[in-house]
Amino acid sequence: MAKITFITSSNEKITVAATEGSVMELAVNNNVQGIDGDCGGVCSCATCHVFVAPEDVDKVGVASEIETDMLELADDANEYSRLCCQIPVTDAIDNVVFTVAK
Amino acid sequence: MFSLITKTLRMAKCKFADAFKEEREKSGIGKMDDQGDPVVMLLNHKDVRKAAHNYKVFSSEAVPGRIVVPSEVNIRTTRQIPFEVDPPMHKEYRSLLEAWFKRPLQDTYEEKLTTIISTVLDDVLSKDKVDVVSDLALVIQSRALTLLLNVPFDKSVKWISWGTHVFRSEGEALDGDKAAILYNYIDEEIDNAIANPADNLYSTLLAAEVNGKKLTKEEVKGVLILTFAGGRDTVINALTNMMSYFSANKKALDYIRSKPEIIKTAVEEFIRYFSPLTHMGRVVTEDTTVCEHAVKADSRISLCWASANRDEKVFENPDEVILERKVNPHVGFGFSHHNCLGATHARQIMRITLKLLAEKVSDITVLEAEENIENLGEFTRKVGYNSLKATFKKR
Ligand code: HEM
Ligand code: HEM
Ligand code: FES
């Protein structure tokens, strides 16, 4: 079981828990504002863009090349950007904080 | 909005070949003439995405109709919004529209769409033989559009009666008179909405403001035309082609029925593989190069989504339909600023249709197919069918 916190652009803090699926699915199922997950998680829409808290980067891991190419052309992407449909929910990311990009 | 339709009559196999492979690997670009205004087509996934992102050099805001291939400059003057507007103005219009075009995610919308599609499938199942294009795809597309606009269901009767050839006459790519049917219809509906405001897209747009100014009638028209035109052949081809796939892959329906959780990835894969919109143009604003090829200011390029979607540098086994393709950065709905505004609606139509098909239908068999082939200069590409006669069996 991993506990995950989202901070939306209206500064709402939402903490939820799950054992499986992707971080995008978790956000969509909990109506986290700003995460739409339009493409269902296949890395084609960039509507699941989040910033990983700097102290959590090691836990979350790095983006694949395909994800990086996608992020390169996303609005306001920075070194902490991830497409959260590409992050599986596992115990490894317990207590991680994601800030929603839009 | 493509070139001439040639007709081929033959038994159908669901094969949608990659028309651009050779040229993509060789030079990365394709060339086609179009009414004296040639087009350099970008074929690589990377180049297509980069150019789509770089609106300053590759603009959508040319003379209305010029970014469309074949060019529509001679048949219309109305600027399509937000399609033919560059950032930053593009964003002003987009933000007006975005919430409305996300409505397909609401539960009530999904329920109504399910009823619409279910009714059409039951009707198809009650017949010995149907034309998938006119009896299934056109009907679902038209009825679903009443939900997107939030207008009475009856409105779809007229849209269906226009047939699939609302903009075209036999053998002619672009037909101004036929486009006028749509233009006049929209003018009338806007006037109706002015007289009797309602909770529909017409009235919502009429009440909307950009930078403190109400949208003009011309701007409202620009948005609506796009909603009708952009979402018609694309959705019809996506649905029809999906049916042809099930005829050629007899086990796929059972498979999806046993694993409905793959519906989302399957739909993205169909959009990638079929790429219902082949390409879209841009006008070059300064002398530059694309894929090491010089292009001049005021010339045209196109972003070839269909080629990018088969790029072997990005997709493993690009010519295979892999229903569970997990990472699928396709550009079937475009990319960056102008990515498809109707995608939420289109995806819902595809997902619900697939779900209901798997539940209700045990077999689809194509009997006769007339392919719709686009001629794009040196390339020919099958984009869908003009007609597809088939039998549907109940589960
Ligand atoms: C005022 C707006 C538009 C007009 C008047 C228009 C006109 C046309 C015409 C005349 C055709 C038939 C071409 C042929 O027979 O070869 C066509 C087909 C098509 N259009 Fe458009 N178009 C418009 C906007 C759009 C937009 C915005 C999109 C997509 C984003 C789009 C996508 C398509 C597609 C996919 C086809 C099908 C090609 C085929 O099956 O042959 N259209 N349109
Ligand atoms: C499977 C179905 C569809 C496909 C494959 C598709 C494809 C595309 C593509 C590739 C673009 C990008 C054009 C560009 O970059 O210039 C686009 C834009 C657009 N599409 Fe679609 N489309 C589909 C359905 C729809 C539907 C149902 C609607 C609305 C009813 C729609 C409305 C639009 C609009 C308004 C734009 C312009 C967005 C902008 O400029 O910001 N499309 N579509
Ligand atoms: S949900 Fe589409 S890229 Fe993540």
Automatic annotation (TrEMBL), chain A:
Belongs to the adrenodoxin/putidaredoxin family. PANTHER family: FERREDOXIN-2, MITOCHONDRIAL, FERREDOXIN/ADRENODOXIN. Signal peptide: none annotated. Its cofactor is [2Fe-2S] cluster. PROSITE patterns: 2FE2S_FER_2. This is Ferredoxin. InterPro entries: 2Fe-2S_ferredoxin-like_sf, 2Fe-2S_ferredoxin-type, Adrenodoxin-like, Beta-grasp_dom_sf. Keywords: 2Fe-2S, Iron, Iron-sulfur, Metal-binding. GO terms for biological process: P450-containing electron transport chain. GO terms for molecular function: 2 iron, 2 sulfur cluster binding; electron transfer activity; metal ion binding. Residues 2-102 form the 2Fe-2S ferredoxin-type domain.
